[in-house]
Specification:
single chain, 161 residues, mainly alpha, 6 helices, 82% helix
Length: 161
């Protein structure tokens, strides 16, 4: 297989940073973004080389997208490229996971405060907030749907008063 064309190290690091910030979703989506950017758009790596790397990473246990980024970083810049791609990927993915853990409490508190703000009724906001909590964690509703439902409930409650 052919060797990838030489890419400046700083440019590669910039790409891994960008990918780390914008690659939300499951590994399939992240791998698709890598393929689109690295193979189709930038042409840093050939289709054959990318598929070879992907097949290799799929055999290994663990996160495929992270392994693929590390492997491609290694292909482009050797050990320092592999380490750089892996470190950037891990730091940004963990930062995103941490951000979600920080945002979930806000997502739970939002329905309470939204209903209380609209209705001014503490006990109703408590009941609706508990229902929102159950919808989020038990039934896996989207946070946006829960907030919209709480806003609608709060508006309806203003007419009941």
């Amino acid at each position: 297989m052919e060797k990838p064309m030489p890419i400046p190290f700083a440019e590669a690091i910039g790409y891994w940073l960008k990918l780390g910030f914008v690659s939300f979703g499951a590994p399939a989506g992240q791998i698709s973004m890598m393929h689109q950017e690295l193979v189709e758009r930038r042409r840093w790596i050939s289709e054959q080389r990318f598929l070879h790397a992907l097949n290799y990473c799929m055999v290994l246990p663990g996160p495929e997208a992270q392994q693929l980024a590390t492997y491609i970083g290694w292909l482009m810049h050797g050990v320092k490229g592999g380490i750089a791609a892996a470190v950037v990927w891990v730091i940004l993915n963990h930062a995103r996971i941490f951000a979600w853990h920080v945002l979930w409490p806000a997502g739970i508190a939002a329905p309470f405060s939204l209903v209380h703000l609209i209705t001014g009724m503490d006990w109703i906001s408590l009941v609706i907030g508990l229902m929102a909590f159950v919808a989020l964690f038990r039934y896996k509703f989207s946070i946006m749907h829960v907030i919209a439902a709480c806003a609608l409930a709060g508006l309806l409650m203003t007419f009941v008063r």
